[in-house]
Amino acid sequence: MNANSSNSLLVVPTGALKISEHPLTDFHRDNPILLSLVIPTYKERNNIENIVNILSRLLDEAIPGNYELIIVDDDSPDLTWELAQSLLPDYPQLRVMRRQEEWGLSSAVIRGWQVATGRILGVIDGDLQHPPEVLIQLLQKIEEGADLALASRHVDGGGVSSWTIIRRFLSRGAQVLGLIILPGVLGRVTDPMSGYFMVRRSAIAGATMNPVGYKILLEVIGRGQVREIAEAGYIFRERTEGESKVTWKQYVEYIQHLIRLRVSTGRLGKISQKVNFPVGRFIRFGVVGFSGVFVDMAVLYLLSDPSTLALPLTRSKIISGEVAIFNNFLWNDAWTFADVSMQQKGWNQTIKRFLKFNVICLAGLVLNVVVLNIVFNLLIPNRYIANLIAIAVATIWNFWVNLKLSWRVTDVK
Ligand code: GDD
Ligand code: MN
Asked: With b meaning 16 or more CB within 10 Å and e meaning fewer, what string describes 25-49?
């Protein structure tokens, strides 16, 4: 069966960046193909036909009918996707995705893998800087037992063609920095920057990827269950058509990515995964809640103490409670849930989150009182223990409902 039965574009998956254990369609679930190779592209109009042609000829010979090429284009202004689409009738193993709502190299690769029907998932650049023949070696290494096989510039047979000293220095510098921050991942391969590799689907199925920027390999090794890794040398060729999309921004993102991976694959991250609960977030939420107690106390003192304003107690408490809620919101928005609020910028969104947070916390207060009464009157006739239990229940409620409602990504650009 052909990989594409029509000449239409692939539907872009949405939601979590997670690879399923099996291909999604019933047919391919029972009959997966061997290799799904993703070619991420952005403004590669002058390369695309060439690379599709070369890869098809190579793979038609090596594994005829047992592969697919998946181009994932981020709506290139040079209409790379349209040109790719026009190739569909001539290349039965080709599939094309045009993304318009999301962008970036790493997520492009994962979106491509999500629709893949293969047992082995691979990626190769679309600009012919990665020599296609190496694919056969990579494939062989996986068939010999490796979970992941990457093309490396830093083993025998590898190298870069004519890089300046500065570029070599930057590239190595990034690698050393990575080794310091994330030795468990970068220490496993000689070329962690490689964007040319293959991995068994089973080794990354089920892991939610959270990549920033360019370095998808780090994500795969960091979050997957990759046991054996093999490498094949390759010479990184010079570009002849189009230009590189790497700017200083990719260096910043690279560092962010390292730190994020470090945190989420560290001890706390592992516990979170095991118990399927965001432990780190909950701790931050708790710390913020604790700060709210002091804010509440301070404001209550300023308003109601006989030596200060001496306002009535109830009125003072309502104000101090509300100020504490406001305090907690600010910290939670900027810290506990910073990753989520960053995706939902703008005053409108912030105010919406604040109102939700407010309502949920007030409901939490009611819950607090109810639980206190139930526990005290029916279970444990000690008001302080009962209160501790009530506070714990209300905190968990506050955290969980806010996690699900207030800091939830509702509109993805
Ligand atoms: N879909 C999509 N979206 N594709 C992209 C994007 C994007 O935002 N940015 C770049 N690409 C595609 C390019 O069209 C190309 O096919 C491939 O990703 C690599 O991009 P380049 O801009 O050519 O990267 P490079 O040559 O500097 O970097 C290469 O070498 C690195 C090692 O030094 C890539 O192979 C990297 O993956 C590799 O890590
Ligand atoms: Mn390139």
From this structure: eeebeeebbbbbbbbbbbbbbebbb
